[in-house]
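for the recovery benchmark. tokens below, seq after
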């Protein structure tokens, strides 16, 4: 439990550090290096377009990250008078204290110390449980983090390609980049800043692929109308049309909500004002 509590603090700190490093590298290294290209026009230059794209992706990733934490799942035990102590409420709701009493998909998270409805999983990177209220923002967070990592990977490769005069046309060039760079770094032929960017390239690739995979997995579960908790517990869910399942998570305008993330932020603000 102590390890999990520690992970609950370390993982968000790790995410914020990586975000800060990515932001600094993009703003102070990658984007200024694109301005040095004399063949480009000042207006609509790749540097400006890339800067605008990166700011859009990172603002959406961080905005949804904050919304996941803000819209954490409701505490079910609050409104129920089942005796003192959250764990007792949890046992009742989970069905372990009184078989047959369980509410569908409720789960007591010992890290968050609360019972949540339509529980999916506990996310260590946000330090919160993912449930019915923040699932939409969580998927958006995964999607935009993955896109921001991909964007940083491409910008980083362009920077390394220009500064080391190398080409990534051959796919093997990326695979052999790390061992070559390590040997060059220890022989003094590579700057520490360039070595750092090369290490970040692999980190962005790893985080980007992990987030994209996670996002696809969550979307597949939503289309089936399932949560990860239900799959783990082997719970049978009522079959419904996939559009209905999407509407439950992304709202009535689910397609627009997926394409225009700001629409979700607006509807979240309105929902909070109504409360
Ligand atoms: Zn939790």
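predicted aa per position
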């Amino acid at each position: 439990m102590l390890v999990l509590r520690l992970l609950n603090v370390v993982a968000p700190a790790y995410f914020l550090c990586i975000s800060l490093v990515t932001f600094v590298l993009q703003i102070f290294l990658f984007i200024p290096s694109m301005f040095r290209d004399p063949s480009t026009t000042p207006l609509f230059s790749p540097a400006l377009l890339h800067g605008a794209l990166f700011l859009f992706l990172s603002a959406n990733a961080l905005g949804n990250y904050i919304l996941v934490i803000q819209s954490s799942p409701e505490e079910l035990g609050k409104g129920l008078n089942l005796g003192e102590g959250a764990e007792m409420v949890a046992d009742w709701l989970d069905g372990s204290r009184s078989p047959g009493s369980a509410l569908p998909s409720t789960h007591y998270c010992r890290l968050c110390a609360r019972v949540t409805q339509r529980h999916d999983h506990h996310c260590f990177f946000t330090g919160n449980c993912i449930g019915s209220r923040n699932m939409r923002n969580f998927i958006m967070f995964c999607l935009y983090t993955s896109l921001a990592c991909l964007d940083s990977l491409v910008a980083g490769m362009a920077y390394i390609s220009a500064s080391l005069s190398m080409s990534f046309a051959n796919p093997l060039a990326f695979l052999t980049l790390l061992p070559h760079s390590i040997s060059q770094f220890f022989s003094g032929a590579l700057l520490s800043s360039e070595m750092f960017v090369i290490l970040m390239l692999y980190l962005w690739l790893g985080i980007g692929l992990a987030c994209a995979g996670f996002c696809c997995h969550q979307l597949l579960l939503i289309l089936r109308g399932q949560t990860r908790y239900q799959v783990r517990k082997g719970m049978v869910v009522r079959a419904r049309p996939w559009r209905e399942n999407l509407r439950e998570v992304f709202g009535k305008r689910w397609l627009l909500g997926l394409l225009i993330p700001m629409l979700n932020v607006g509807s979240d603000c309105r929902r909070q004002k109504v409360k």
